[in-house]
Design brief:
Elements (H helix, E strand, L loop, with lengths): L19 E6 L8 E6 L5 E6 L12 H4 L15 E2 L8 E2 L2 H19 L4 E5 L5 H15 L4 E3 L6 H11 L16 E5 L3 H4 L1 H14 L3 E4 L5 H4 L3 E3 L6 H14 L5 H7 E2 L1 H8 L4 H8 L3 H13 L3 E5 L1 H4 L4 H14 L9 E4 L6 H7 L14 H11 L14 H9 L5 E5 L3 H4 L3 H10 L2 E6 L12 E4 L8 E4 L4 E5 L12 H12 L11 H12 L11 H7 L2 E2 L4 H5 L25 E2 L18 E6 L15 H4 L6 E4 L1 H7 L6 E5 L4 E8 L7 E5 L6 H4 L16 E7 L3 H12 L2
Parallel strand pairs: 6-7, 6-14, 8-9, 8-12, 9-10, 11-20, 12-13, 14-15, 15-16, 21-25, 22-24
Antiparallel strand pairs: 1-2, 2-3, 4-5, 4-16, 17-18, 18-19, 21-26, 22-25, 23-24, 23-26
The structure holds iron/sulfur cluster.
Amino acid sequence: MLFGRGKKNPIKIADKKVSEWKYATCGYCSTGCSIEVGLNEAGKPVASRGVGGADVNRGKLCLKGIFEHELFDSAGRGTEPMMRDNFHDEWKTTDWDTALDKVHDEIRRVQEKYGRDSVAIISTGQMLTEEFYTLGKLTRGLIGTNNYDGNTTLCMSSAVSGYKRSFGSDGPPGCYEDFEHTDCLIAWGSNLPEQHPIIYWRMKEAQEARGFPLIVIDPRVTMLAQNADMHLAITPGTDVVLQNAMMHVILKEGLEDRRYIDANTNGIEELEAEVKNYDPTTAAKICGIDEDTIQNVARLFAKAGAAMQIWTMGINQSTHGSDGVVGINNLALITGNIGKPGGTSLSITGQCNAMGTREWSSCSGLPGFRYLEVPEHREEMAKFWNIDPEFFPKKRGLYQTDIYPAIETGQIKGLWLIATNPMSSLPNTARIRKSMEKLEFCVVQDCYQDTESAQYAHVYLPAGTWAEKEGVMTNTERRINVVKPVTKPHGNSKPDLWIFNRMAERFNKEGKVNFPEKAPDIFLEMAELSKGRLADISGMTHELLEKNRGVQWPYTEEQVKKGEAPPKGGKRIYTEDGTFSHPDGKAKLIPLPFIDNNEVPDDKFPFWLNTGRLIEHWHGRTKTGKLGNNNKYSPIPFAEINPDAAKELGIMAGDYVRLVSRRSDAILMAQLTQRVPKNMIFVPFHFYDCANRLTLGLLDPHSRQPAYKQSAVRIERIKDQKAAAKLSMEMREF
Ligand code: SF4
């Protein structure tokens, strides 16, 4: 039957019979969408919806947020603590006291036998900030190992390092509202529509209203590149060359902002001397972007009234990740594009609370962007926590990516993993597996008991997830928002904060250090510590955050006293001359000589291997792999192959192929697409025993972040497709 105008058959959405909506902040990406979870009369979470009055998402959610309520009772959730003597043994269920005593005793046993730093602690960007802060206090103040890091080293440490080198501190200067003011946007290695869909929507709406040019720099024709005015398909790992060439043009043609440079920066002479070597003709041969395009983009950027740069993993996950961030900052600084509406360098952060861990976890130092290397910071924190300042190390310990080689060499014997799954997320899986097998003691604390890393654990602690807990998160634009407990932790699992506090009791028998039980009280402790610092949150409370659907830092006690309302819309830092965090208040312009140290394609391994994300999934699929509505849209891994390359190799769409690198191999289904050039394969990184069997992951010298996106592989056609399909499935069975 045909329906005429006005007689359309409306889509019927099943009535979920929601009797109450509870407030939270989305627990996946760093966009920071305000979300409400709907509960039915029995108190079961049955629906999710965006919050209309929220600055960030204005009522919208992406595919992951819409189905987020399904994760509370998803498959694989841990319900009881478990223990075993050897990781080959069967798990035995135990009670919390026994499990926590065992963790305490093993940590102390390993430390007494091999030294304080022989135990490593690796956390995440997924927990709530009060949990990070408490874990930091426990680790730095009581356990005393210096080998403490977060999995944020895998996604954001280049951004952190680059910000620190340029501006003297971590902390993204811009905000989403900058899209509404910019006259030119360059996106470096950032695929917003798939990675940060709601930020993409904010950007797209602003672009449609004002028509600013969008330039996407990415080796792959990503969804964002398809929507760009200009797409620069750069040779992987050569962003610094393009940045230097753009600065060469800007400085040669006098397009820089001299007033801004003189008032706010140091190092222009050294920078000028370096970029003189990068004329566009020479640079084009290295970075693969022709000289006219380099000149045009440089002029467009420098002449724009306000120009903005964003980036994600395309910059960070490189051996030049930190330099790439500094290069972006250099470009912004010489054109005066920091701290003004529409003029900024904005790192689009990865995990929901990667910023929270950067600010408060003490992984890279001490809370509130304090450093172990600064004696006054050690003194201040020791006094605040009531510990001996000499207990603190004088400089930060190993990054996550250096902890595994230290397990290999026997320096580290014990490991506490918290909401992270290195067996899936670190490059070169075979090497990580060997490290995990060498551990004398491993405890995994996670809301899922079936993670690949838990296979190697001696104790498993079931943790609550996301909105089973209470606390705050900080998003990409420095907005702190609150998560309320929507439902109780699954089974006998406990909030991470509860677990840290119970562990603290065991390490803090004399009760010298105070560990508040409740997240709002811990937040007040953090607020006190933040006074007068860059990330000053002394004007905030949980109530204020919920009322305002998130507030950007800084928001200070003085502002509250003066009656200033929390900022609405967008707030920037480094807005005035001389406000940077280096001691002299100026930003540093840093010359960036380029040394090509990547693994590059050759005769034996002729394809670049590029890895990245899909909209349906979140990181290692620990969560989204269990959710029908996410997983069914993207159930299996695949390899994007250019149709011309496939034709030469006799590969058809849907064939299984074997990708081989110097590390290992993986069998994947071929997806033929022009999104990748003829010499590149793209593989989504979400699937276990897949992309990271192949990746090399050389490390950035400053940030120790792995170069996931620059490895070399060859493709082998497989004759027996049935056997390949079976093997491919078996490789992913767990
Ligand atoms: Fe959640 Fe990010 Fe999607 Fe927003 S864009 S709903 S924060 S996953």
